[in-house]
Specification:
The chain is an all-alpha fold. It folds into 2 domains: about 20-85; about 140-350, MetI-like (MetI-like fold), CATH 1.10.3720. About 70% of the residues lie in helices and about 0% in strands. It contains 12 helices and no strands. It has helices at about 20-45, 55-80, 85-105, 140-175, 180-195, 195-210, 210-240, 240-250, 255-290, 305-310, 315-320, 320-350. The longest helix is centred in the C-terminal third of the chain and has 38 residues, at about 255-290. It starts with 18 loop residues before the first helix and ends in a 7-residue tail after the last helix. The relative contact order is 0.10.
Length: about 350
């Protein structure tokens, strides 16, 4: 065996250190620092700045939330890699936490909504008794906020579910058969969308009352045209594809083509947009309650009803948590639904795929 040695004048091999561990360590430190500073700022806002001016409290809260969210995003990327989308996972985590509290209330926890006038307008103390304070009559703000989450999710998912079911079928038929079916569909959807939505909702609630069922059905009337148009547009695209032509050439019936060939391809894009529309419906329901024409605030507390109490200047001055708690919860929920829906759209929409 002949041993071959490198020539004496050959340059020495220089080992280059992998920068990834150092970058990951710095991201972990920066993420933990941002999250800690943001959480500390939120605690300062609740403990120190609670009786200060409203703009200072809002500024401290916004900066604190920004630092917490960006810090958690850095931590997630450092632990799971750069391909992970932190905003989407944080949104999913928030929606999961919200659902857990809703199910806990359904199981009998956090369901006490009795008034306690001896403990009116108590600020958040993060104690076991009333962690998020009480309102003007001594009711738990946390329990009311969870009840409001229940109502918002029921109304949002229920109305969009009805709109998705009806709009998908109508849009499939209009986009596939074209002709009179499409013309009738366009006239009906244009008429509904042209009518002022707020006046339509006011009229329905004024006639039939402000129950959860009535508000859900009223909002579903506004989601049916939107989902129907999306279904029709996607049906027009897929109806001209080769697999539909092949199925028709093999003798498949129109019903089979619609529900076995086109519907599975249309369903996923529609589902992604439906998540985004749920967020829009939640805001619409809260707006109705804020204006006093939504769900009855006495029997069913909602986020809009709780925020409506802030119309009195004394509430924002003496007990701003009554408005901030439902407002922040609605903001995080709507933001999370929009983010999850956008991620699903990119994942499922065929126009976004690389094929």
């Amino acid at each position: 065996m002949v041993e071959v040695s490198a020539p004496p004048d050959a340059p020495e091999r220089v080992e280059i250190a992998d920068p990834e561990p150092g970058r990951r360590s710095r991201s972990l430190v920066e993420g933990a620092t941002r999250s800690g500073v943001g959480a500390a700022l939120l605690l300062v806002q609740l403990k120190v700045l609670y009786d200060s001016t409203a703009w200072l409290q809002v500024a401290a809260s916004l900066i604190g939330f920004y630092l917490v969210v960006t810090g958690l995003s850095l931590l997630i990327r450092a632990m799971f890699g750069t391909r992970v989308e932190p905003a989407t996972w944080l949104s999913v985590a928030w929606l999961g936490v919200l659902l857990v509290f809703v199910f806990l209330q359904l199981a009998g926890l956090f369901d006490n909504l009795t008034a306690d006038f001896a403990n009116r307008e108590q600020p958040p103390q993060f104690s076991a008794h009333e962690p998020l304070g009480t309102d003007r009559v001594g009711k738990s703000v946390m329990n009311q906020a969870i009840q409001g989450a229940r109502v918002s999710l029921v109304v949002g998912i229920g109305s969009v579910g009805i709109g998705l079911a009806v709009g998908t079928i109508v849009g499939l038929v209009a986009g596939y058969y074209r002709g009179p079916a499409e013309g009738t569909f366009n006239i009906l959807t244009d008429s509904i969308l042209a009518f002022p939505a707020l006046i339509l909702l006011f009229t329905i609630v004024a006639i039939f009352g402000g129950s959860v069922l009535v508000v859900t059905l009223a909002l579903s009337m506004l989601s049916i045209p939107t989902m129907g148009r999306l279904a029709r547009a996607n049906t027009l695209t897929f109806a001209a594809r080769e697999f539909v032509t092949a199925a028709r050439a093999m003798g498949a019936s129109n019903g089979r083509i619609l529900f076995r060939e086109i519907l599975p391809n249309v369903a996923l894009p529609l589902a992604s947009y439906a998540v985004i529309i749920v967020a829009v419906v939640i805001v619409a329901e809260a707006s109705l309650s804020f204006l006093g024409v939504g769900i009855d605030p006495i029997s069913t507390p909602t986020w809009g009803n709780m925020i409506s109490e802030g119309r009195q200047q004394s509430v924002l001055k003496d007990a701003p948590h009554i408005v901030f708690v439902p407002g922040v919860l609605m903001f995080l929920t709507v933001l999370s639904l929009n983010r999850v829906g956008e991620s699903l759209r990119v994942l499922w929409d065929p126009r976004e795929s690389k094929l």
